[in-house]
Amino acid sequence: MPEVVIASGRQRPDTGPPPPPRPPAGPAKRGGPRRGLARLRGGLLGLAGFLGLVLVWQITAAAEVVGNGLLPTPGTVFEVIWTGLGNGLANDVLISSRRVVVWVSVGIAAAVPVGFLLGWFPIARAALNPLVNFFRALPPIALVPLVIVYFGIGELARGIILMYAAFFATVVIVFEGIAGIEDKYVRAAQTLGANRIEVLTRVVLPFSVPHILTAARVSLGIGWASLVAAELVAAQDGLGAVIQNAGNFLDIPRVYAGIILIGLCALVMDAVLRFISVRLVRWQDRGTR
């Protein structure tokens, strides 16, 4: 009888039902490593820009492009800053920072309702917009003589100039932001039964927050730019007074020191406002995905 050879094969083990399909990968979480690297790269590029400026400054001073030693080296100016911070210059920084923050905040607080009024009511916009543009074009330094006449030479007079500088810039930015809100959001709220007040508080106000924060950043910059004009009003302290007194005695390194400190203070305040803006308007990024 012939031998029958039975071929034996492997059987696949019973593994049960197949696993459920994996859900598709969602978008990367915000604030992940990629965003951190982008911020680091941006910070390094910004630092490189400052270093390049200091290098050009050093070369220009060493080559004596400006004669008679009227352009100090960066090292000389930074030494003035370092030694001056321990000899009263830090107090001037604090005084000027307090003036700018307090009075610019007052100007912003007074300007936001006016911006809402212009942006929301066409009649008010037609009546007041030319006046806003007229006064916005007037430089704060031109008002110094009138401010001295009407408000004296005290702290209030300096504050009025800073408040004036911030007020009209904020009005324009808030007004443009509210006027630019798309009608579809207003119509959607009205379709759901919202009255005019609810549309203003639940639609217009949230959408205006980014513009208010932008106005705050712009107004702070204008406030620091107007600081010297404000401290022309018989100020004995503050960075504007430091620059004026140093200029009277041709102390050029101290003039540069005051200018650099104003720029650094404005840069720090702008960074703080940008940080706050990112936290407050996080919904805006999600809504644009």
UniProtKB/TrEMBL annotation:
<feature type="transmembrane region" description="Helical">
    <location>
        <begin position="255"/>
        <end position="276"/>
    </location>
</feature>
<dbReference type="InterPro" id="IPR000515">
    <property type="entry name" value="MetI-like"/>
</dbReference>
<comment type="similarity">
    <text>Belongs to the binding-protein-dependent transport system permease family.</text>
</comment>
<dbReference type="Pfam" id="PF00528">
    <property type="entry name" value="BPD_transp_1"/>
</dbReference>
<dbReference type="InterPro" id="IPR035906">
    <property type="entry name" value="MetI-like_sf"/>
</dbReference>
<keyword id="KW-1003">Cell membrane</keyword>
<feature type="compositionally biased region" description="Pro residues">
    <location>
        <begin position="15"/>
        <end position="26"/>
    </location>
</feature>
<feature type="transmembrane region" description="Helical">
    <location>
        <begin position="159"/>
        <end position="181"/>
    </location>
</feature>
<protein>
    <submittedName>
        <fullName>ABC transporter permease</fullName>
    </submittedName>
</protein>
<feature type="transmembrane region" description="Helical">
    <location>
        <begin position="100"/>
        <end position="121"/>
    </location>
</feature>
<keyword id="KW-0812">Transmembrane</keyword>
<feature type="transmembrane region" description="Helical">
    <location>
        <begin position="133"/>
        <end position="153"/>
    </location>
</feature>
<feature type="transmembrane region" description="Helical">
    <location>
        <begin position="44"/>
        <end position="63"/>
    </location>
</feature>
<feature type="domain" description="ABC transmembrane type-1">
    <location>
        <begin position="89"/>
        <end position="273"/>
    </location>
</feature>
<keyword id="KW-1133">Transmembrane helix</keyword>
<keyword id="KW-0472">Membrane</keyword>
<keyword id="KW-0813">Transport</keyword>
<feature type="region of interest" description="Disordered">
    <location>
        <begin position="1"/>
        <end position="34"/>
    </location>
</feature>
